[in-house]
Design goal:
heterodimer, A: mainly alpha, two-stranded antiparallel ribbon, 9 helices, globular, B: alpha+beta, about 40% helix
C-alpha cells in the first residue's frame, strides 16, 4: 500500500468513466433507467445518487469479500449484496423523500438489474482492492449520473418549461396567454430521452478522437 | 478451508443470508414510523384531492384537520357503527361477508357545501386500484374523484391517477331518474350509455378501466343503503 490514495492511476479510475469509458454513452449500459426516470431533473438527480450509493458500496463490499467468495456462487453473492443495498436505499427514500420514491417507484428496484453495477462488480471489484473499487464505483456512477442529469435538464426545461419544479419559461410567453411559445410534449415521453442520449453520444464522439472508429 | 468445497459454499451462503436478513429487518423496523406517517399524509392528500382541494405534503395535515368535519363507519345497511374511518383497512373489509363489512365515510366542508367522500377499493390488472369519490349532498352527483394504483402499466392503466381521467367524473350521476343505482360506465368505443352516467376509458388500459368500473359498481352498491338514507 505504498501507493498514494490519489495517485495518477487512481484518479484515472474516477475520470475515465466520465468520458472515455462512460457507462451510458460508450459502453451503452443502464440505458433503460436513463430513459425512464429523466422526464424531470429531480428524479434524475435522486436516481444518480441512489445508483452512486449502491455502486460504490457494493463495489467496496465485494472487493473486501473477494478472497472469500466461493467461485461457484459469486454471481449470487454479488446479487445478494446489490439487492440488500437497493432495498436499504428504497427504504430510506420511502422514509425521507416519499414523493420522489413514488415517482421512481419500480425503477429503484430496477437498480438491482442495472447492468452497470453487476458489470463493475464482475469486471473490477472482484480483482481489485477496496479503495480502488470505491473510486471505480464513484467514477462510473458519476459517468452515469452526469448523463442522467444532462438528459433530465433538457427534458424538463423543454418539456415542462421548468427546472426542479420551478418555472423557467415566463407564463406570458405561452400561446395560451397570448405569447409565442409552447412546451414540447414529446420531450416528456421516453423516445425523446433516447434521442437526447443519441445527441450526447454524437457530440461526445465528434469531440473525443479516441472514440472515433476508423 | 478449500474455497471450492461444498461445505464452504453452503456455509458461506447460509451466513451471508442470515447477516443480510438481520440488517434489512432492523433497518425496516427503524424506518417504519416515518414511512407510515408518509402514507397517512398521502391518504389525507388523496381525500382532499377528491373534493378538489390541492395540498402539499407539508400542508395536508392542517388543511385536513380544518376541512374534514366528520369521519365515521357505516354498515351495508347504512347504520353508523363504532370504528375509525381513517385507519379502516379496505382490503380486509372487502374480503369479509357483506353483512360484516365496515364502510368509512368522510364528511368534508367545502366552499360548495357539505360533501361526502367514499373510499373505494378494487382490482386492476397487476394489483389493487383504489380511490376516493366525493358526492354532493344530493348523494347522487359526483363532486370529484381521485384514483391511485399499486402497479398498473405506466402510460396505460397507470393513467387512472391523472387529472385527465379523474376530472370528467365531476358532475356525473350514480343514480338514474327512477332512483336506481347505475354507477358509472367506464366506456370503450361503441359502448352506449347516457352521458351523465359514463366517462371515457383509457385506450390500451382496458383491464384497468374495467376493474375500476367494477370497483365503482361494487362499492356504490355497498354504500347504496347509506346513500338512500341520507338523501
Amino acid at each position: 500500500m505504498s501507493e498514494p490514495l490519489f495517485s495518477k492511476k487512481n484518479l484515472k479510475l474516477l475520470s475515465d468513466p466520465l468520458n472515455d469509458s462512460n457507462p451510458i454513452t460508450v459502453q451503452v449500459l443502464g440505458i433503460c433507467s436513463a430513459l425512464a426516470v429523466t422526464a424531470q431533473l429531480k428524479p434524475s438527480i435522486v436516481m444518480a445518487l441512489s445508483v452512486a450509493a449502491v455502486l460504490a458500496f457494493s463495489n467496496v463490499i465485494i472487493s473486501l469479500l473477494r478472497n472469500t467468495i466461493p467461485n461457484r456462487i459469486r454471481i449470487i453473492v454479488q446479487l445478494v449484496v446489490i439487492a440488500a443495498l437497493v432495498i436499504l436505499v428504497d427504504q430510506v427514500l420511502k422514509a425521507y423523500v416519499y414523493d420522489v420514491s413514488k415517482q421512481l417507484s419500480v425503477f429503484v428496484g430496477l437498480i438491482i438489474t442495472n447492468c452497470i453495477i453487476m458489470g463493475r462488480l464482475e469486471a473490477f471489484a472482484l480483482g481489485n482492492r477496496p479503495w480502488q473499487s470505491f473510486l471505480d464505483g464513484i467514477g462510473n456512477a458519476a459517468g452515469y449520473g452526469v448523463i442522467l442529469i444532462v438528459v433530465g435538464f433538457f427534458r424538463e426545461l423543454l418539456g415542462s418549461g421548468s427546472l426542479l419544479g420551478f418555472k423557467i419559461i415566463p407564463d406570458s410567453w405561452y400561446i395560451a396567454n397570448g405569447g409565442f411559445y409552447e412546451n414540447n410534449g414529446l420531450m416528456v415521453l421516453s423516445p425523446m430521452a433516447l434521442i437526447v442520449v443519441g445527441i450526447i453520444i454524437w457530440v461526445q464522439r465528434s469531440r473525443n478522437s479516441k472514440l472515433i472508429e476508423n | 478451508m478449500d474455497r471450492n468445497s461444498n461445505t464452504y459454499t453452503f456455509l458461506y451462503a447460509a451466513i451471508m443470508v442470515i447477516i443480510v436478513a438481520a440488517v434489512l429487518a432492523s433497518v425496516s423496523m427503524a424506518l417504519k414510523p416515518a414511512q407510515k406517517k408518509n402514507v397517512a399524509i398521502e391518504k389525507k392528500q388523496n381525500i382532499l384531492a377528491s373534493v378538489n382541494i390541492e395540498s402539499t405534503a407539508a400542508t395536508a395535515e392542517a388543511i385536513y384537520a380544518e376541512k374534514i368535519i366528520g369521519e365515521y363507519v357505516v354498515t351495508v345497511k347504512g347504520e353508523q357503527v363504532e370504528g375509525d374511518a381513517f385507519t379502516t383497512d379496505l382490503k380486509k373489509e372487502r374480503a369479509k361477508d357483506a353483512a360484516d363489512m365496515l364502510l368509512p365515510v368522510f364528511e368534508v366542508k367545502t366552499d360548495d357545501g357539505l360533501k361526502y367522500v367514499l373510499p373505494l377499493y378494487g382490482a386492476g390488472l397487476w394489483g389493487p386500484v383504489w380511490g376516493y369519490v366525493s358526492l354532493s349532498d344530493d348523494m347522487n352527483t359526483i363532486y370529484g374523484a381521485n384514483f391511485d394504483h399499486e402497479g398498473e402499466t405506466p402510460g396505460l392503466g397507470a393513467e387512472i391517477s391523472t387529472t385527465a381521467f379523474e376530472a370528467p367524473f365531476k358532475g356525473k350521476k350514480i343514480f338514474d331518474e327512477s332512483g336506481k343505482l347505475v354507477s358509472i360506465l367506464v366506456a370503450k368505443v361503441g359502448q352506449v350509455a347516457p352521458e351523465e352516467h359514463k366517462v371515457d376509458a383509457i385506450s390500451g388500459g382496458t383491464i384497468t378501466s374495467k376493474g375500476l368500473e367494477q370497483m365503482l359498481q361494487d362499492d356504490f352498491t355497498a354504500y347504496e343503503e347509506f346513500l338512500n338514507k341520507k338523501k
